[in-house]
Amino acid sequence: MSSLHIFPGYRFEMKALADLAIDQAVKPLDKAVRWIEYVIRRKEAKHLQNPAVDMPLYQYLLSNGFCLFSFISFYSIRRISRD
User: 1, 33, 56, 64: least CB-packed within 10 angstroms?
Assistant: First the structure.
C-alpha cells in the first residue's frame, strides 16, 4: 500500500484500465438474456449443463471419500488406543 503513494501516475493508469474493462460491446443484462433464450431454443442444452447433474448423490456429496476418511481415522485411533 505504501508503494502506491510513490507512483503518482498509478491512479491515472488504473482509471484507464478500469475504463477498458468496463467498456463492453454488449451490456451484461443483454448477454444474460441472450444465453437464457439460447438455452430455451435448444431445449436442454446438454453442453451447458454442470457435469454433476449426472452424478449419483453419494458421489456428489463426497460421501464415499468421507466414509473412507472416517474408517481410516477410526481404525487408526482404535489401534493407537490399544497400545
Answer: 1
Please tell me the distance from the alpha carbon of residue 74 to that of residue 47, in angstroms, as a whole number: 42
Is residue 26 a contact partner of residue 18, using CB atoms and an 8 Å limit? no
Same domain, yes or no: 7 and 38: yes
Give the separation between CA 15 and CA 23, rounded to whole angstroms: 12
The reported pTM is: 0.35
H or E stretch covering 19: helix 10-22
State whether 43 and 77 are in the same domain. Answer: no
What domain range includes position 79?
A: 51-83
